[in-house]
Design a protein that fits this description.
This protein has four helices and no strands. By secondary structure, the chain is mainly α. It has one domain.
């Protein structure tokens, strides 16, 4: 009979454990969907520069920070302290708020460009909006699960 080792609720994972624990399993999908937002917005014509610049900032910032956060947890640099659990919650909550605001801005711009004529760019913008909201959802779920872990720390 094989013994399974479950991660205690109040501990932070490290190494391969980040691929198996509830909030940390979202790192890879967050990177994938955030990267897709980044790529899709970068491939379109940046017509209203200010809102789309915010979307690009959010997607690049969250992609880089999530990758760094993943490396910190995978390398075990967090030393399993409650400060890291709080920082994990704070970062993912901030990223969720950022992606929500970026998704709203991107959806507004996409809706306004609906009658502009270029159907290919319109479809790319719609895909970017969908992936922005999926990124928001992933970061929000990660923030909720991180807050539960922080509470039990």
């Amino acid at each position: 009979m094989a013994a399974t080792t479950a991660q205690p609720m109040g501990s932070l994972p490290s190494g391969k454990g980040i691929c198996t624990t509830a909030p940390d399993v979202f790192y890879i999908p967050e990177l994938v969907f955030g990267g897709l937002v980044w790529i899709l917005v970068a491939t379109t014509h940046v017509d209203p520069m200010n809102p789309l610049a915010w979307v690009m900032f959010v997607s690049v910032f969250c992609f880089v920070m999530t990758f760094l956060w993943l490396i910190i947890f995978a390398a075990g640099c967090h030393k399993n302290s409650s400060g890291w659990a709080a920082a994990d919650f704070a970062y993912h909550f901030l990223a969720a708020i950022f992606y929500l605001s970026a998704g709203v801005a991107l959806a507004t711009i996409t809706f306004q460009k609906k009658t502009a004529g270029n159907l290919k760019i319109y479809k790319i913008d719609i895909a970017a909006v969908v992936f922005a909201y999926l990124s928001f959802l992933l970061y929000f779920i990660h923030a909720i699960l991180s807050s539960i872990r922080w509470k039990h720390f």
